[in-house]
Amino acid sequence: MKIFFPIIFTTYTENAIKRAFEKCHIEFESETYYTPKDFYQDEFLEMKIKSDVKKADATHIFTINYFPLIAVCAAELGIPYVSWSYDSPLNLPTTDTMDFNTNRIYLFDRAEVEYYKSLDIKNVFHLPLAVDCDALSKIKKPDSKKYDVSFLGSFYENDLFRIIAPLPQNTKEMLVNAVMGTLGNARADAIESTVTDFTEKKINKEYYDATWQAAKEAHVAMPENVFQINKRQLTFLMNEEATREERLLLLGSLSPFHDVAIATNSPYTSLQNMDPKTAILPPQNYEDEMPAFFMNSKVNLNPALHAIKSGINLRVLDIIGTGSFCLTSNLPEIEEYFKIGEEIETYSSLEECIEKAEYYIENDSKREEIAKKGFEKAEKEFQYQDRIKAMFSYHIT
Asked: How many degrees, rounded to 5, is the angle at CA 288 between CA 131 and CA 357?
């Protein structure tokens, strides 16, 4: 077996995957290409990748995250395409190419796997993410913690409020109330239960009516194409907004009383209501700066993206893989894999998160004991080489 590993988009875990291939004694060849404008079709890129796969005499193609145009290449070559995504949900507008029989698509969120299975896409499988504990163990730990609480990640800036602006007031209130009804509770289904097929049809009729009224008042012809939104798009935007609100509320509540650090690529204007003493840092290099950031924090928060309904997102493993303490949204698979209060800590409301953060800031020994056991669990059950073996076991000899 020989794997061809094309890089067409910058990912965090590329080096860890390569190290895992080497530990598993799997031959691989990797090439870095440009990022196409269209992930479904790029004739030159497809031709180049297929040529390089043949030149490498590869038997499989592997990528971090799933790319439709790579699936096309593998299907045309008649070889397996294995992908493993750390994003959830997949950022793809359609399921085109996903049902190719050459695909083996691995997702970390069991709920998302079930969604695709419901669409009769049979070659999608559940596989938790991993962490390279060996590499992280080599990073020097600080003598003391610099921050009480930290968060590394995005404060999602999207167009939800601009998009819903033309809708009637009662519809806007219904959608906003659904967003607010999920804050602090990763298992809340207020958004999904609100945005039904009926709601989708109702909203799209309201867009049509609003466009017709605007055209009438402006004395212009009705546009041929009226803006429409589907249920999955609207649900994702609302989940992003819920995540944004949760992260801002938690950090904003803790920052006046504790040393809080935030590392983000979001505009600093998003954080203008934080306490002035809050440390606002730029994005951290994944291989060394990010682990050091986690190690410097007593409590590392993981308010997970609300679109993740079940799985353990990468940030959780990145935190505990450094031997640091993680306080995370209470996602179902976290309870499956970890002992809560012994290997990791969770919250099910904003109030519980704040209370637990303050408790663990003050209780060093308990916090450090949980962090130590969390690292041991990651080292035992979340190694990259185990995941690689699981994905390729049917071909590893």
From this structure: 70
| Burial 20-52, CB ≥16 within 10 A → b, else e | bbeeeebebeeeeeeebeebeebeebbebbbeb
DSSP annotation of 82 = E
The confidence band for 394, taking pLDDT boundaries of 50, 70 and 90, is low
Rounded to whole angstroms, how far apart are CA atoms 34 and 8? Answer: 6
Residue 253: partners with Cβ closer than 8 Å, 6 or more residues away: 350, 354
Q: H or E stretch including 243?
A: helix 231-254
Give one word for 341, left, alpha or beta, with left for phi > 0 and alpha for psi -120 to 50. Answer: left
105's tokens: 């698509």
Indicate if the pLDDT at residue 396 is higher than 70: no
What single string gives the DSSP state of each residue in 284-317? --TTTHHHHHHHTEEEEEE---TT--SS--HHHH
Identity (one letter) of the amino acid at 347?
Y
Q: pTM to 2 decimals?
A: 0.94
Q: pLDDT (tens digit, 9 = 90+) per residue, 72-90?
A: 999 999 999 999 999 999 9
Do 58 and 26 touch, CB atoms closer than 8 A? no
For residues 339 and 381, the answer to whether their CB atoms sit within 8 Å is no
